[in-house]
Write a structure and sequence with these properties.
235 residues; mainly alpha; 8 helices; globular
Amino acid sequence: MSLLYIFSIGIAVFLSTLGGGLFALRFQDKLHLMLGFSAGAILSVTFFDLLPESIGLAKDQFTISTILSVTACGFMGYMILDRVLVMINSEHTGTLGAISLSAHSLLDGFVIGMAFHISFSLGNILALAVLVHDFSDGINTVNVIMLADNRRNKRAFKWLVLDAVSPILGIFISYFFHLQKEKLGIILALFAGFFLYIGASDFLPESQHRHPKLLTTLMTILGILIIYAAIKFAH
């Protein structure tokens, strides 16, 4: 695989993430609808992407019960850290969410690079899967910052750029550092717990605190269906 091809994948993922975030910044007056969509999107990524991928990668060494226990630990660990940070400064909770999303994007790039080491076709499949859900990742990154402080547009944009660059960095790192697929699966299971908390405990309740609630619920369902369809199409 040529370096030009790798670079083109990284640029495509960067533009997809950046585009989603800029969309969220542009339509802040529709924040309740975007939060509803983000809740559905991030939960869809958790259940239809992260968890299946983690089980598929780690099942040869770990039982499904163990993998799901790691997800539960991720959920509880994120919850505890989130509650502690709320007592210190609510702004930090937005930073925590943005860090988790950016770290996930870094891992996305790493997984793409790892997949290309296995086979060209597998690399393309995972690259497409990442590409189609990274638009919503950009939206999610902006939204998690805006929830903490909706006046911090510049701060949200800085985190958006970091999130957009992270997959490129992940692809680059994969060429110098190799990780056993079972360990990678456990990391994905941990992130599934993080994302489950962000979607179910942050985005979903906050979206319902704003109106109109029926349309917000429909946006959540739309977020689930779009990401589900995109993941199935990519695979």
